[in-house]
Give the backbone structure.
Amino acid sequence: SVLVDTLFTSIDSIPNLGSIIDASIYPYAKMRAYFLDNVSNTPAQIYRWQLLYDPEPELALNPALGFTFSALTDSLQQGQNVEFAIAIENISEFDMDSLLVHYWVEDEDRNRTYLPYVRQDSLRSGEVLYDTITFDTENYPNSNSLWIFANPTNDTTGLQDQLEQYDFNNIAEIKFNIAVDEMNPLLDVTFDGLHILDGDIVNAKPTIKISLDDENPYLLLSEDMDTSNFQVFILKPGATQYTQIRFLDGTGANIMYWTTATGPDNKFEIEYPVEFAVDGTYKLRVQANDKSANLSGEMAYEIEFEIINRSTITNLLNYPNPFSTRTQFVFELTGSVIPDQIRIQIMTITGVVVREINEDEIGPLRIGRNRTEFWWDGRDQFGDPLANGVYLYKVVTRINGLDVENRETDADNFFKKGFGKMYLMR
């Protein structure tokens, strides 16, 4: 394209070639002159050819001056932060204006995600920029590429952010791999702090605790929105369908309370204080998943339990029976209130009390199955060993001064008028 075609005299000049030729459109413009003398047939000799221009700077990625990439290892887990830095050097004699650098990650599906990075200060001649960026790998499982483009080209105009001699040494790609989180988190469910067995009697007003413990210390269950990773259902007595338990009711009040993970232990905890007003058999179903959608188990956790609202106690049994060295006592409590008085009386067949075991010896009580911490060793109140033979026992329990009702069970056949029988055989 001929842009300037004119005849010059000794007084002609073009003071600003840039007003005629756009360097961004014609970066490789050429100057050519023709001389003609039709009179003397003597070509003119150039006295001076002077081209005035503004020189463009030049930068280059120079990993020899500095390079860091923490993802160049196979041990990185999904969700772990990655650090990257590479030296960007101005290798020309001319200063650059404020420097724009683009970083982006290209995943295995070729989706591009730009990483936020502010424009840097000017890069003067001979200076080096070595700045570390950090990004999260939660959304980049498996194979990926990290790209850097210093003084990038505008996707719309095709022009660099600022004029430069070359751009082939401004761009780099580094491939990396992130291990996918495929391990199942651990789900734990307790009633009043205890693990129950299927079919157990539990407190009519229990606090059910649900926790999800994930081994990944980077994909933390640290947000309130992580409540969506839990599904809690109750099957009520006589019902055929489960009812889902929400975290909040229609007014925004808490039904279940939660505590998010804080790291490095990645444990999300839920407390569900509930009152079961109707007696009968219930089922609890819980399913949960971590941030990588790994389920806590192929099947949801399910437990069946029984509610009896009135305060009762079953006939207390000793085990083993007969015994030679020691025996322990087992029984069940129902309702929602722990007895404030309990004692076990052991007596001869003539009714003489030889040993009385109080609540301090029996140990802590709970609604449901109880096994005493106390083992009776066949000794009387003074520590003297008793003779072999048959001994009777009974339990006395009270709440606020009132006797606790005895609940009928199959074990009642072993009792006569509330007294049990044990055999001491040394």
User: Anything to note?
Assistant: Residues 43 and 373 are 121 Å apart (CA to CA). The mean pLDDT is 90.
